[in-house]
UniProtKB/TrEMBL annotation:
Keyword tags: Plasmid
InterPro entries: YjiS-like
Protein's organism: Rhizobium jaguaris
Pfam families recorded: YjiS-like
Domain YjiS-like as annotated: residue spans: 3-39
Protein's name in the database: DUF1127 domain-containing protein
Length: 48
């Protein structure tokens, strides 16, 4: 994996964590996500 791809993956991970972190617990629950699962969801988003 090259540096640009690594950086883009890191940026996508941080953006996803940030967006989900700003959501209320209710909004996360509506999406089926627990607050403790935010990092796992972000990792899965990068893997796609």
């Amino acid at each position: 994996m090259n540096v640009a791809r690594s950086f883009n993956n890191w940026r996508k991970y941080r953006q996803t964590v940030g967006e989900l972190g700003r959501m209320s617990t209710r909004e996360l629950h509506d999406l089926g996500i627990d607050r403790g699962d935010i990092r796992n969801v972000a990792r899965a988003a990068v893997a796609r």
